[in-house]
Amino acid sequence: MTNSQEAPCHVFLVCYPGQGHINPTLRLAKKLAAEGLLVTISTAVHFGKTLQKAGSIGAGDCPTPVGNGFIRFEFFEDGLQELNPKDVNLERVVNQIELFGRPSLAGLIKNQTAENRSVSCLIVNPFLPWTCEVAKELEIPCAILWVQSCAVFSIYYHCFHKSVPFPSELEPKIDVHLPILPLLKNDEIPSFLHPNNIYGVLGNVLLSQFSKLSTPFCILMDTFGELEKDIINYMSNITPLKPIGPLFINPQNLETEVSGHCLKAEDCVEWLNSKPPQSVVYVSFGSIVHLKQEQIDELAYGLCNSGFSFLWVMKPPDDVYGLKGHVLPEEVMEKAGERGKVVQWSSQERVLSHESVGCFITHCGWNSSVEAIGNGVPVVAFPQWGDQVTNAKFLVEDYGVGVRLSRGAEANELISRDEIVRCISEVMIRESSGGEFRRNALKLKQAAAAAVVDGGSSHKNIQEFVDEIKKRCVRGNFE
Ligand code: UDP
């Protein structure tokens, strides 16, 4: 970049510190940069350091070229080092990030103007609802990147507006009837909305986002029209939605050295190459879920007894909450031999797109769900909490791409090795003879691919969004 040429439009993305957030944020950033925008991704400093340590992003703040534009990173203060490690809990972390992050983020954004990169649009994250207020105070147009499904968006929306009864202290066990959506059994609404849920603070954070929905001019969603047609149509009449997913599909093959991995991904491709098509069970519980050791034991025996090959991501827990790492029963790995591979972290997008993968045992985080669908891979749904339980319902009952193995952590059930074998076999054996799960998944894969190519529904929405930003663009000089 030569000195003092006209700066590209600058979009500033604020990301909640978490793997399930940085992935869609970075994927969106790449698409925006490809259109010639300068994109800054800003997240809490402790998380930025994690990304740097994993080698996913550079240590300096040099913009990385992507397509016709650039991506760069800046971190806001989070005050987490001030917390006493003995009494760290989720609520303290959330409050501390707001307390330190609010002034720090506002300062960072103001600095952009001083440095001739005035921000034309802020794209914020619903798990940091205060960022909408920062945008309002600084009078910068703001959009939200919603990183869950539209169905889940509608559930939170109706809960916030109290338009239908939700479980409460008085009636904790009721089911939920919402417009357009199928009946949601009590344990199928996002678990953060249950009274006294241990992660209820996150439910309150998300509900608080709905009190600020008049600020954003647009709500971008990592979903696609063909997947959630009816609920997208319905909610579009109420809020300014733009489905722009699946963001993980990258038809332009944008190459950059920037990635969002919090841990270095181990190479699994060579091992997968050695297996026949559709013969491997891929197992991952995402970045946060931590199963009990006895459930890990059952899963290990279930995978081994199923007779199929398996690739299992066993991510070590983050230090913060004092959780213990899992141990695998030794005899299981001995018995499985070459049939089993365990890694700490994979490049999941590459794994799911590999022809050897026959099914995905997933915790049903929204990113994992969309990645499974977008790759045409059937699932064994093993949700724990949050929107995972809702996504599991939709994967199994609405999209028809698999079976359900668990009803979530609140059921407090140990899923037995025999049940695990039964579900794996149902998906793997039925599917090898061209079963309906894979057929449905492949249809959705095609629809997903069609949505993101030139002229597709999600592609058009991104184009409209970029045009809107360019109209609002405040240009300075870019050094
Ligand atoms: N992921 C990955 N490698 C792994 C496990 C997960 O790259 O070994 C990625 C996965 O592709 C997804 C993200 O991590 O994009 C997890 O997000 P998700 O919403 O599925 O779950 P969360 O971690 O937020 O619970």
From TrEMBL:
Entry EC number(s): 2.4.1.-
GO molecular function: quercetin 3-O-glucosyltransferase activity; quercetin 7-O-glucosyltransferase activity
CDD domains the record matches: GT1_Gtf-like (cd03784)
Reaction(s) this enzyme catalyzes, per UniProt: mogrol + UDP-alpha-D-glucose = mogroside IE + UDP + H(+)
UniProtKB keywords: Glycosyltransferase, Transferase
Pathway: Secondary metabolite biosynthesis; terpenoid biosynthesis
Principal EC category: transferase
Domain of life: Eukaryota
Family: Belongs to the UDP-glycosyltransferase family.
Name of this chain's protein: Glycosyltransferase
Gene designation per UniProt: LOC111486004
